[in-house]
Amino acid sequence: MTAGRIPAELVTVIASGVFGLFVGSFLNVVIYRTPLGLSIARPRSFCTSCERQLTWWENVPVVSWLALRGRCRSCSAAVSPRYPMVELATGVVFTLVTWANHGSFRTAPFCSLAAGMLAVALIEYEGHRAPLGVAGAATGLAMVLFGIDAALTHRWWALGTPLLGALAGMVAIVVLRVADPTCEDHRGHGRTALLLAACWFGGLSGRPALAGVATWIVAYFAGMTATALTARRRVVAGGSGTRSSPEIPVVFTTPLVSALIAAMAVSLVAGA
């Protein structure tokens, strides 16, 4: 990297992080409304307690929550700290993705996939099943952005691998859905994330993709083992007449999506 490119790349990284904060605000809407079957477009953001529509300055990521001290301006109901945390997390993820891709346009499709993964994961962590539409929308946008990147760089072959990855992820989802239509088996919870992760790995070069896949295998089976051991201790505790039993951490009750997040993170570092 030449000295002249450093300032421009730094500006791009910072701008991407700020943009990620606003995307995180939108993800909060998706995470809250999608499981309830509500439209993510209308009505505008509102207080879930008094249902008053929020003004624009009450929707500034992180800043509004801090300024209002985590409470609704009208009814003083507490606003969950999850909202600024999601915004901050998205901003950090966008910053890291942009840094790993050196501020190139190829950042854009990976940011779309990362945002989709955050939404799917948080919906699943709250005990809901993430609909395919969330992962599908993020993956579809990513494919359009991969196409734009291929046109800008005249590397059309680079569009084929993420497309093949997305197709492979879709096939995996169909297979899991046929085997477990109602998604009762916790091992398949978050299966829509396979579409996002497969497209993500398809867009990477060999080394980071292999590092990610290897991480997924290790993390998934580690999560499954931890879940089985914790469940066994719970049964033993219940049988011995004790009043409490070990709780299974949410990241272990959804081992598939948790392992995919770990795999994507490792591949991001490996490809930086």
Kindly describe this structure:
The structure is a single chain. The chain is mainly alpha-helical and 272 residues long. It folds into two domains: 1-103, no CATH class; 128-272, no CATH class. 66% of the residues lie in helices and 0% in strands. The chain is built from ten helices and no strands. Helix 5 (132-153) runs parallel beside helix 7 (193-202) and helix 7 packs parallel to helix 10. It is globular and about 55 Å long. The two termini are 13 Å apart. Mean pLDDT is 87; it is low at 241-245.
Attribute tags:
2 domains, 272 residues
Put the structure in a nutshell.
The protein is an all-alpha fold.
Termini separation: 13 Å
Q: Spans with pLDDT under 50 lasting ≥5 residues?
A: 241-245
| Global outline | globular
- As for the number of domains, it is 2
Total helical segments? 10
Structural class label: mainly alpha
Provide the helix percentage.
55-70%
**How many beta-strand runs?**
0
Mind telling me the C-alpha Rg? 20 Å
What sequence of helices (H) and strands (E) makes up the elements? HHHHHHHHHH
Overall mean pLDDT: 87
* Biggest sheet details: none
Proportion of β residues? under 5%
